[in-house]
Amino acid sequence: MENIYSIISNLPFPDEITKFWKKHSLCIQKQKFPKQNIITRDWISTNSLIPYLEIDLRLPINKIRTEILNVLDFYENSSTHRGEEMHNGWWSLCLHGLSTNKTRSPRHYGYKSDSETPYKWTELSDLCPITTNAIKNSFKVEFFHRIRLMVLEPGGYILPHTDTQKSFLPKSVNIAITNPKGAYFLLKDKGIIPFEEGKAFKFDISIEHSVINISEERRVHLMVHYDNPKPEWDSFIVNSYKKNMK
To answer: What is the pTM for the complete model shown?
Structure first.
């Protein structure tokens, strides 16, 4: 792993970014997967205490990438994500949500929870039939919540933050549609999640994290939030965990 801090220290990033990356980017910890007599999805999510889990999700990534990149220019920067928090170059679109441009959590739009929010497949999903069908066919779950394209422009950054206080692996998956060399996702005290194009991870969003893109290309990830996983999905998560144990 190259010394990322030595690169970004010469770039015009805010102090909050440079200090966080200086302290944590050289953390290289081999992921440990605790053994358990009976491994279940619930145990993995709440008791394994792993910071992230790569899951063996097989998607037609080349077709998805082509489809998504073809539509992004129509929406460029139309929905800056959490702009009040002073991130830079971070924007998103919903394939499934309240609308294509309403990408925030339910409370931001006056709803108390995901369960009462009237999510639907948006107009963007009509423009991305390959991506939409791949999600529907691959995720063995009863309900989808927000499904978002998360874009980080060249030179962009996501400031260090947490998304919850409770430590667990939530019912969401982050899939790298593109992850150019120079795009990095860093977890405090845990190191860099080894994203590559097509790889999918679940990760603990209670751990402070930050993302930078020091490449000349867009970083595009797909974030899928869901609920009520079916037994097939539970088995899939367990098998992914066991595969990582080897």
So the answer is: 0.94
